[in-house]
Design a protein that fits this description.
Blueprint (H helix, E strand, L loop, with lengths): L5 H13 L7 H12 L5 H13 L3 E4 L2 E4 L1 H6 L9 H14 L13 H16 L36
Antiparallel strand pairs: 1-2
Helix pairs in contact: 1-2, 1-5, 2-6
Length: 163
């Protein structure tokens, strides 16, 4: 597949994350890309990546939702689980550069306006009180409160035996 961009690898990772159990809609893919990268890339570049993936047989549309084909899922196999996002993007770019599609597939009709609507819907959902399940949970900082102490349940190694 030529040329390979970072947005291609990001799209593959985001679609993999969003469509784990069922095909994902655009808002879910945008939310996953936001979670992975921290910033949503240009709409035009993302639409071009969708078209490249569709013509190379890596992404398929199922009833208005998107999922990775088995060939694309095979590219994501073997990624280190504890690697950070830039390292995963680098490894996927290597695998994508070695991927040669056997034949051309039809393109997915996706417009910049559809993707812009999905990005705006994602940003609007982030401003409401609705929780995004793809976002990581914040860590709770415990403060030292003198009123709240740990209970004393006896000795540290259990009750003393008499005998």
């Amino acid at each position: 597949m030529y040329p390979i961009h970072d947005v291609d690898a990001l799209l593959l990772l985001a679609t993999l994350l969003a469509s784990k159990r069922r095909p994902a809609d655009l808002v879910e893919i945008v939310a996953a890309a936001d979670l992975l990268d921290g910033d949503i890339v240009s709409e035009v570049r993302l639409v071009e990546a969708f078209r490249r993936f569709a013509t190379h047989g890596l992404i398929a549309e199922v009833e208005g939702r998107y999922t990775l084909t088995p060939e694309a899922q095979a590219l994501a196999v073997g990624l280190p689980k504890k690697a950070d996002t830039p390292e995963r993007i680098f490894l996927i770019r290597e695998k994508l550069s070695a991927y040669n599609p056997e034949d051309k597939h039809p393109s997915i009709p996706l417009t910049v306006e559809q993707l812009t609507e999905a990005i705006l819907a994602h940003r609007a959902a982030g401003k409401t009180g609705v929780r995004n399940l793809l976002m990581p949970k914040p860590k709770v900082v415990e403060e030292d409160d003198p009123k709240r102490r740990k209970p004393q349940w006896g000795r540290p190694f259990g009750p003393r035996r008499r005998g």
